[in-house]
Specification:
Layout: H1 2-19, H2 23-27, E1 29-33, E2 37-38, E3 49-57, E4 62-69, E5 74-88, E6 91-95, E7 102-109, E8 112-116, E9 124-128
Antiparallel strand pairs: 1-3, 1-9, 2-3, 3-4, 4-5, 5-6, 6-7, 7-8, 8-9
Amino acid sequence: MRMIWLLGLVLVVITLSGCGSKPENALVGKWQSTQGVVADTLFGLFGHFSLANSIEFFKEGTVTAVVRGRTFGSDVPVPITGNYRWIDNDRIRVEMPQVAPIVYRVTINRGELKLSVDGQPGDLTFRKM
């Protein structure tokens, strides 16, 4: 009887330890934009652009966004790759080529990713692919 109780306790501990996923792990993967034209907040670019399809975060700290719009002079999707790092539990710093670094507040809930910049209106929203 004692052995069954101990085995049950071990199984509960193992199960509960898997429930609390880290935000770092939840962010990794490909996300599809739920928005059309977004003001110039995504990577600090000037002008208006839309997310062509997705943004992808990789475990080793790289990020790739596919963007298009007036910023690039055409409506052809252009992939941009840079780096990100976690500053604390809910903020990342994104660095892209030829653009000033920007800090985003990250909220992930039920397969939805929200990126926001403190002091700026609006969020960028994505769905996990």
